[in-house]
Structure formats: structure tokens, C-alpha cells
Amino acid sequence: MHMNSALGSGVMSILVRVWRFMRWPLAVFAALYIGLIIYELTQLPARTETALATIHSQKLTMEDVDGKHLPPPPDPNLVDATVEGIDANENGIRDDVELAIFKKYPNDMKLRAAALQYAMTNQMFLTQVFNTETWKAVAEESGRANLCVSESSRDYRNAVQFTEDLDSMLLNTEARSATYENVFRFTTSHGDGNGKFCDVQR
Q1: Residue 173 — very low, low, confident or very high, per pLDDT cuts 50/70/90?
Q2: Cα 138 from Cα 144, distance rounded (Å)
Q3: Under the phi-then-psi rule, with left for phi > 0, alpha for psi from -120 to 50, and beta for the rest, what region is 67?
């Protein structure tokens, strides 16, 4: 009994010393964590406003469609290394997807334009969504792109196959598919965006 009591007393003494040593670092860590949360909450409205402006201003241009500013083929070792991928020409379309669209539709500018717009808007689900407001904005632009696809395709069946083919390009890794599915936790009601369906009319 005496040995057990002494052992218990020794363990308690060690725990007290550890607590005395650790309590201040833990308190500092907790304070920093709380401060970070408060900072994020205060910055969220401005971050959201900036993101919404970016989402709604991102439009396909004729220069994107006619191929004057095609990117170089991306490094195969880097193309799928991140969710956002590589966009060397900074037009909002992943370079590997952009080049694949040009290869698939070399002579049909109308379908190519619809495919590029679809790729651009749906890429934003992977890169721009972090709350309900940004999800709604991207969904509106994606709605316009889907209507553009329908307008540009010969019939409904072609439009469905068209978007499925594009989705397989856009969501070609587990990380991209997971990110895409995850942002739909922000789902809310939305319209189809303002203005004409197709950014580039052919």
C-alpha cells in the first residue's frame, strides 16, 4: 500500500509539473486560434465580395475561342498535382482541358466555344467556392454555360453526352471529384445568371 501510494504521488507530481510547463503555451495557442477565427470572420465579407466580382466578370472571349492564345502543353508531372491544375494563359480554363477541347473540336467553333465556356465556369466550382454566396454565383454562371451547350448542340442527347465528356476531363482525379462534391454542401436556390447564355456568339 505504501509503495502504491508513493508511486501515485510521484505520478501526480510529474503531471503537475508537466501542466505547469505546458499551460502557458497551450493558453497562447488557444488565444492565437481564437484570434485567427475572429480575423477570418471579419475578413469574410470582403473576401466574398471580391470572389463574387471575379466569378461574374470571368467571361469567354473570341481570342479564347479562335486559339490565338493557346497555352503550351503543361508538364505531365504537374498537370494533376493540384486541384486547380495549370492555367498558363490565365483565362480561367485548365490548360490540359483547353487543349483537349481544341483537339476534339478543331473545326466546329460553335461547339468549341460552348465547351470552353462550360469548362471555365465549372472550373470555378473547384477554385472559387467557399460559402453559399460564392456557390450561388458559380451555379448561376454554370447555368448559363449549360444553356449555351443546349443552344449549341444539335439535340438534348448530344448536350448530355457533351457535358458528361467535359465533366470527365474536369474531374479526372479523386481530389478534384472530392472537391467538387464537397462544395455542394453550400447548395442554395439560384437563377441562371444574367445576360445571354453564350459569352461568344457564333
Answers
A1: very high
A2: 10
A3: left
